[in-house]
Amino acid sequence: MKTIEEVIKKTAELPEELQREVADFVEFLSQRRSRPRRKKLRLDWAGGLKDLREKYTSVELQHKASEWRANDALGRR
Which residue numbers delimit the DUF2281 domain (predicted)? Predict the structure, then answer.
């Protein structure tokens, strides 16, 4: 028996509430598969801010990075 036929047969034997759960799970699997896969984080930027080490503390740099991201989002430089 094919897999899909087995699933249909077993699902049909379940109570209606559990059949809905099966349908929800199938939908979840379908959506998960259609989502683009996340790329692994690249670390080629490591050390890219070393010139700012003397100018900012780590906390100041975090604030500055947030400011830069906000400006980018607003289209400002």
Answer: 6-65
Cβ-defined contacts of 21-30 (< 8 Å, 24+)? none
Domain segments of the chain as ranges: 3-34, 47-77
For the CA atoms of 16, 17, 20, 25, what is the dihedral angle to 10 degrees? -130
The pLDDT of residue 39 is: 81
Whether the pTM exceeds 0.85: the reply is: no
Mention every residue, 6+ apart, whose C-beta is less than 8 A from residue 51: none
Measured distance CA(19)–CA(29) in Å, rounded: 15
